[in-house]
Amino acid sequence: MSCRQRKLQRPDPSPGAQGPPQTGDPSSPDAAVGTCAPRGPRAKGPATFPFNQLPIDCQLHVFSFLSEVEKCTAALVCSGWSRLMRTPRLWRVADFMRLGAFLSGMDGVVVSVREFERWKEWVHQYAYHLSARGASLLLLRASFDLGDQRTKWADFLLNFLESVHCGELKELELNWTLTHLEPLDFYPPGSMAQICLAKTDQFNSFQTLFERLTRWSPKLSRMKLPFDWSEHSVALLTQFQHLSTLELNYFWVFKGVQPETMQQLTRSLPNLKALILQVLVPVKDLGVSYPLESKSLEFLDVSQSRGLVFSHLDLPALRELRVKKTIRGIILNRRTRVALQTRWSCLYDLLRVGTPKLQLFNSHRLRPHWQTQAYLELSEVLLQSCYCIQHTDTWLL
Q1: Within 10 A of 121 (CB to CB), how many other CB atoms are there?
Q2: Parallel, antiparallel, or unpaired for β 274-277 and 245-250?
Q3: 83, 108, 231, 384: which has the fewest Cβ within 10 Å?
Q4: Which residues does UniProt assign to the signal peptide (predicted)?
Q5: Are 346 and 391 contacting, i.e. CB atoms less than 8 angstroms apart?
Q6: 132, 121, 134, 142: which is closest to 167 by C-alpha?
Q7: Is 8 helix (H, G, I), strand (E, B) or coil?
Q8: Which CATH class is domain 54-90?
Q9: pTM
């Protein structure tokens, strides 16, 4: 029999024929030892994932990971996605300090007047975009000169916040003393009287906005802004009882801070964990020292302040402190210098009594017994941070 004839020969289909075991037969030897016969082609699944069959909350959660541009692109896919993209909780961030699409990724550049005008146009389009979607904000970043009577940034920001939802706003970064990307020569500087009037317009508009925020966004937990340290502004700031992180920058070099005002602020914020202060003590207030009290504060940074001297510290939870003694170029005779310095307490004495849990002092990790035994490294840190007569042998402040 030829090879071809043997291939064409079929087994006898009669019941009595003893052919090879059939695949899947439990009586076969291969089945007894668990050996599987070769499988056929893998079954194909559905061509697409049934995303639209997911619950709406799941779809929104997936969309929440997209960037703003990607969300706008997704809205063009179909009418269903377009409706979903108008859900307020998909629009959580209002960042007016971005440079816009035409300057994307170019932080810190100096722009021309033409580019600044283009940025202003983008700002208004961006605000309309968020308002049309009824954004429910968690984060707001903006830098507008609220005293600018030509552009009316104060009115713009108020109208924008009224058109969106701010009840869940958690983080605010607002510089209300200058406009983002505005060229330095856009408005020529005026006389000192004009500058004073402009500063007055700025903090009046800021206080109006701040009053609204106490009603619109009482849950703010992080805040960064210039601060005028007026009694009214401090009273408004103390209403944000959920604040955990606070950064206050100086408003104007001629604006001083009353010691009682600073003490009242830190006392009135029970959940405050981190505080960054940039205080410029005017020359007329030389000799003034400041008390600071907080039961919750764990991190304090006053390294960017000038002339800030503490008279009392009651910070039982503080773990890290950053403070730096700065040179201001003020030279006094020895008698005047000694008279002022003798009124100031040594920072080391204040820390030993008022900060029992302190661990880091200007990035220096303190030794376990630093409160009772001073050592060389700690003394070097004090020479860079303490204004007392023991740690300052010259007067260049």
Answers
A1: 11
A2: parallel
A3: 108
A4: none
A5: yes
A6: 134
A7: helix
A8: mainly alpha
A9: 0.79
Amino acid at 136: S
Cβ atoms 223, 240 nearer than 8 A: yes
User: Six-digit token pair at 92?
Assistant: 């959580």
**Spatial CA neighbour of 141 closest among 239, 247, 252:** 247
Separation of first and last alpha carbons in the chain: 114
Q: How many CB atoms lie within 10 A of CB 171?
A: 17
**CA–CA distances in Å: residue 317 to residues 321, 352, 356:** 11, 13, 8
User: pLDDT of the chain along its 397 residues, tens only?
Assistant: 555 444 445 444 444 444 444 444 434 434 333 434 445 555 555 567 777 778 888 888 887 888 777 878 888 888 888 888 888 888 999 999 876 444 444 445 567 888 889 999 999 999 999 999 999 999 999 999 999 989 999 999 999 999 999 999 999 999 999 999 888 766 666 677 777 888 889 989 999 999 999 999 999 999 999 999 999 999 999 999 999 999 999 888 777 889 999 999 999 999 999 999 999 888 777 778 999 999 999 999 999 998 899 999 999 999 999 999 886 667 777 777 777 777 888 999 999 999 999 999 999 999 999 999 889 999 999 999 998 888 876 555 5
Residue 6 — left, alpha, or beta (φ > 0 → left; ψ -120 to 50 → alpha)?
A: alpha
Tokens of residue 172, six digits: 């605010």
CB 314 within 8 A of CB 292: yes
The continuous run of DSSP H or E covering 361 comes out as: strand 360-361
The SS3 call for residue 172 is strand
Q: Report the helix count and the strand count for the chain, using DSSP H and E.
A: 13, 12
Domain ranges of the chain: 54-90
d(CA 117, CA 266): 41
Distance (Å, whole) CA 153 – CA 149: 8
Strand, helix or coil for residue 267: helix
Other beta carbons within 10 Å of 110: 8
138: number of Cβ within 10 Å: 16
